[in-house]
Amino acid sequence: MPATPSAESAAPSSKGAPFDAHDPLGIDDLLTDEDRAVRATVRRWTAERILPSIADWYERGELPGIRELARELGSIGALGMSLTGYGCAGASAVQYGLACLELEAADSGIRSLVSVQGSLAMYAIWRFGSEEQKERWLPRMSAGEVLGCFGLTEPDIGSDPGAMRTHAKRDGTDWVLNGRKMWITNGSVAGVAVVWARTDDGIRGFVVPTDTPGFSAPEIKHKWSLRASVTSELVLDEVRLPADAVLPGATGLRGPLGCLSHARYGIVWGSMGAARASFEAALDYAKTREQFGKPIGGFQLTQAKLADMAVELHKGILLAHHLGLRMDAGRLRPEQVSFGKLNNVREAIEICRTARTILGANGISLEYPVMRHATNLESVLTYEGTVEMHQLVLGKALTGLDAFR
């Protein structure tokens, strides 16, 4: 029989590295040297190019120099980074996730720029496009020379994309598109749009150069969330495209929904970046802000908040890492992505709200990142699948019963 361990040998060792308040579970031990290098590259870029200006951009409601930022993101391999070939970095899913976490720790709008470019527009062309379409667009998109957008949501059609009204009809060998898309990230700065439309043969995707006559993309203003992000409406008025504009590998909703699943995976990680930035702001503040003669971090109620925030933050990062390993192994299911998106965004918002209470009135100031992250996450909670939609995805998976209608 195996020997029974002594109390001394069974007890946790106290000789290891000191407790790290920023990595209390030692999750870094799960990462490879290459993983850490990718994370360090993106973190350094955001520290130099985004963090010094993001509060001002957010307050002004604009993202100046977006094309220059895109080229810089291309130069560090962040655009379409998990795709292979055509100038893409071919990074692992875990590495892409770590990049999303660092980008969203700076701002959700920056991570959205990268997600829409790589996980929606580029992924659609990479996964469903012809070789000619891939060669024409992907190298320039991965370099940040051309920005892309993804047109699925419509003014009155959100969670039910199968009811879309945008349509494409044959006219000889050409296609003619008419319709509108709404809440489209990168729309007014994009050089190419992937647009989904109803046809006589079902829903199809089209690669639309944005200089095509009849295409316009007015920018949406007066947002209280994702303010440092370009959001637009797409208007298609008799947009005539050649026969080879259609994505040959996608028919029906499986095409756009597959793209959304790829992008949602990045959100699972990214939302934890917003949560981390808010938690760290609250932790630092609690150590220095004094009330009743001592730092507020020395009071039990504040410590309880910090402990709960840390638990949910690092559980969420562990979940994201687990899903990344499954994606790298080719075993990640859409229902599992819904699991991650539902949990992590919901918990990230709660972490931001709790962090705001620790900062008190200062929590609403743009001198701290907390309220900016909280308001951004309200958009992240809704786009690419609301809470209710992901609950129903999981409900169907658990019960085998479809409750969508």
TrEMBL record:
Q: Which residues form the Acyl-CoA oxidase/dehydrogenase middle domain?
A: 149-239
Q: Does the keyword Transmembrane helix apply?
A: no
The segment annotated Disordered runs over 1-21
Q: Which UniProt keywords apply?
A: FAD, Flavoprotein, Oxidoreductase, Transit peptide
Q: Which cofactors must be present for this protein to function? A: FAD
The annotated regions of Low complexity compositional bias extend over 1-18
Residues of the Acyl-CoA dehydrogenase/oxidase C-terminal domain: 252-398
Where in this chain does the record put each Acyl-CoA dehydrogenase/oxidase N-terminal domain? 32-145
- Annotated InterPro entries: Acyl-CoA_Oxase/DH_mid-dom (IPR006091), Acyl-CoA_Oxase/DH_mid-dom_sf (IPR046373), AcylCo_DH-like_C (IPR036250), AcylCo_DH/oxidase_C (IPR009075), AcylCoA_DH/ox_N (IPR013786), AcylCoA_DH/ox_N_sf (IPR037069), AcylCoA_DH/oxidase_NM_dom_sf (IPR009100), Glutaryl-CoA_DH_mitochondrial (IPR052033)
Give the domain of life: Bacteria
Identify its protein family.
Belongs to the acyl-CoA dehydrogenase family.
Q: Which PANTHER family match?
A: GLUTARYL-COA DEHYDROGENASE, MITOCHONDRIAL
Q: What is this protein called?
A: Acyl-CoA dehydrogenase
Protein source organism: Streptomyces kronopolitis
